[in-house]
Amino acid sequence: MSILNISVLLVEDDRLSLMVYSEFIKKMVSDVYTASDGLEGISVYRKQKPDIIITDIRMPGLDGLEMIRKIKAENPYVKVIMISGHSEVEYLIQSIDLGVDAYLLKPVDNKKLEEKVEELGKNILLSKKVAETEKKFRDFAALLPQIVFEADLNGKLTFVNELALKKFRYSKKELANGLYLQDMLAEKHQKKASNIQSVIKGSRAFQEQEVTCKTRKGELFPALIYTSGIMEDGKLAGVRGVMVDITSRKRMMEELQSLNLELEEKVAQRTRRLSNEIKEKEIAEKELIKAKEKAEESDQMKGVFLGNVSHEIQTPIKAIISFSKLLQSPGLDDTRRSELISIIESNSNALLNLTNDILEFTRLQSKTVKLFLIMFDLNLFLKELFPVFETLKRKQADKDIELKLDIPDENQVLMIKSDPSRLRQIFTNLISNAFKFTHEGYVKYGYRLGKGNTIRFFVEDTGLGISKTYQKKIFERFIQEPKPLNVKKEGTGLGLPITQSLISKLKGRIWVESGLGNGSTFYFEFPGILIGEEDHGQDNEMSWEDCQMLIIEDEIKEYIRLEEMLKNRIQLHYLNNIEQAVEYCSSNKKIDICFYRMKKKTDLNLIDNIRLYSPGIKVVALLDKKSEGAEKKRLKNRFDNVISKPFRKDKIMRVLKSHLG
Questions:
Q1: Contact 28, 117 (CB under 8 A)
Q2: 476 vs 263: which has the higher pLDDT
Q3: Are 652 and 566 in contact (CB under 8 A)?
Q4: From residue 495, how far is each of 261, 476, 502 by CA, in Å?
Q5: Is the dihedral of CA 410, 415, 420, 422 positive or negative?
Q6: 408-421, pLDDT tens digit by residue?
Q7: Do the domain assignments include residue 531?
Q8: How far is CA 68 from CA 46, 60, 98, in A?
Q9: Which of 343, 365, 387 is the endpoint of a domain?
């Protein structure tokens, strides 16, 4: 056997045995150190750091077991061969508890000792070689100008270079505590981590995947990610990869794009100057075609949008113009004039709806849409929508369609917390679509209760149906499934994308079940919006049905919020400015209490006029922020009470109870 390049510490209190073992071990390893007891063994270990310790158990002073316990406390990975002249099971158990690698009884079989030293020595050399290779990899990774990382199959990072820690602003301690590849990706790309792993499991490299990275402080930057699998014993053990920051490349591309736009503008100017010359006109046409192709490639969605909108706008505008001219014709009877006015009004409404869709879609895209979540009775809400949808149905006078409302228990008071105006908009969009594409049968809407306070709404029709190919596409912008020639094409393809965006904003989801010729059912559900009876039933006794309340509020959404709190508790009147309120109170002397939303420039003398016309009326000011000092004193002199934001239900109820009993 060749000599192994490792070191061994022999600890034996019997000098003859120590000498014999030492000479024998020297034939197998490069370095041998000796000690005659446990204390000396610890001293030699700390100085020489041997790879293997071979020790007797019973020794004067500190025995072999206690010595190994102390050394293992310093280095739990040191290899140990325990030699004992006694066969007591207790020694064996203690040795196993200490994690020794071999236990040999005296007289020692030299063959077994040689085999065990050779086995441990080869494992030690292999570990050193792996550690050396790892060090070379880490040293090389430290030199690279890119981010280098390794992760296990769960995405937990096992190594990153210094550049990665610096770029992502994490510390080595945070890495040691547990950091995942997903933590380094923006939310919209976090799923990419699992996608990368699935590709690696297929033994394919994942090249040129662009992602958005996120630092610990939330800073974002674009990057390209390259990965490959880490194989151990023929099995996939993890993933190794490189991230390249492409911020500069992106900036350069934006600059190039800007230069391209400037170039296109210059080409267009030159084209206009040379348009009267035949030869230059041919050149200009080619330039324009190229410019058009570039514009279409870079802004295709914009072209689709303009095409849809221009077509939809032209139709009602042409109709309005044409029938407006017909109105000017002499000799029209009243019946014909009414027909023309009706057509003009219908096309004007179509144009208005189109404009509203475009504005709503723009607001949703720019994320400026605000939600106003309040508690309200769902069953009452759906019943109040029925006559509205009946009006939509009457516009389809040539169709035999029945409108149905399907709710589990119409007599139940079912309170939910949501935005009623947005929920109404969602139902209106879906039911309008159902009426468009249903010629006979019914359109039905309602809901079912699910688990965990979840409510699943539905709009069902017996119309044309939707093919499987388009059941997901119809929620994309400007996408409409081709219809038969006898079905009139309407809309811009924005209704369902708007509906999906609103549902997503309300933390819900939407899907459709359909088949061509079998009708369609649109489902949408919201988790956790159902309010239990214990949350709203405790204040039902607070009611002032014989009293009248005037709310002066110029924002309709704020009034709706108050109305939902007070509905069925008190008689409500609504006006949007204080001047109207003064005029109203001059003719209505029965107002008991008035809530007025204070503005910066308010003529408080008008409050006195309201009191003059309605003696005994209580006037409460609603403030956007809490008043202090002189302002607070001034308001208390003018108003019977002041409520500052947030306008919670319990505040409103306490004020009403204090003034109305």
A1: yes
A2: 263
A3: yes
A4: 33, 10, 11
A5: negative
A6: 887 788 888 888 88
A7: no
A8: 12, 15, 8
A9: 365
